Predict the 3D structure of the following.
Amino acid sequence: MSSSTRPNLTFTLLWAAQFVLLLASQGSAIAVTLTVYAVSRSATVLGLMMAITYGTMIYLSPLIGTWLDRYSRKTGIMLADSTIALSSAGLAIAAFVEAGLPIVLVLVFIHSCGMSAQQLSLQATVREIRTEKNLTTVASAVALVDNIPLFVGPLIGALVYTLVSAVALFALEAVVATIVVIVVALLPFPPTHRRKAPTAAIEGFRFILTQPELRKIQASFGVVNFTHGLAVPALLAVVISTESTWPESFRLSVYNIANAAGLILGAATMLWVARRLPRPVIVVAGIVGGAVCGRLVVPLVVGIFPLVVLVSFLRNVCTQWANTPLTAFWQERTPTSIQGSVFGARRFLGQGAYPLALLVGGWCAKNGGLSTLFIVCAVVELAIAACVWRSKILQ
């Protein structure tokens, strides 16, 4: 086998294995939610569980990424997937013996750490395995692998949970994660040169914040993430409050499925677009399209449920167009030895204010400022698109 073929085969087998694990993980997420609720019978505790999950993914990412940079990417993936396997096995046992809530929440925290480490390790592996100068097409394929489980996994999880049990879902994830660890151990990764890993999470922040171009692009998309957080509760309010013969639970399910389908279609179309359009054009088109479809148009279709779902679907297609080339940009520009630290810092800087945005957006939705909120978000996002286009950062 030629030296050029081997990395491509490693990349394909690695992501095929991770795809199966992501399916299992998305399915077990259903079991986690239902298990926590069965133990607590409290919406407040469900909120605490979500805070643990997303808080770990956002606020601990710089520390987790820095820790991963101390190992080879192959070892990092194996450690992350092993953490998922062990925590899933723990959750299976906890569900079987009906363990107390504190034990379940600790296992949820460990599982979230494993998922965060998995995401950061896989992102940082792309540049080491793939040699293309422009990684946008590769990032599009990875985004497709990432998002299909968001659509299919919950359906599998709901089916297994209904027909078997939560224990079966957790056990399935543990077994799949263990098999994936073995597969990764057998894959021939490219040799890595000895490198000086970052000693503190601050190095990832320093890499971003001390370079004007990177600081500007990070700030731009941090603002876009904030406006997205503002609009999420408002859009949910529109979906739930729309007059329809369909029950609220059905409307919410259709809305979530449409969002996942939009991300999948966005990633699929990126595979074609990435080879034909310059990166800045794709990113700006994604931001502008999202601002128009998912913001400006919403006040015009309030009360018409199919159109609300359609504009949300189109917004997610555009979101994929904006985000996928950006991921490739950072993979190309960041030294491989500190990609875990930098990607963790990126997540913190880009999503750290997201929970606050959700609270503010929820307050606006409650107090009747929906149209104004959508218009303000659209104006801000269009301004960001203009800044990105004029700056030529992504050239």
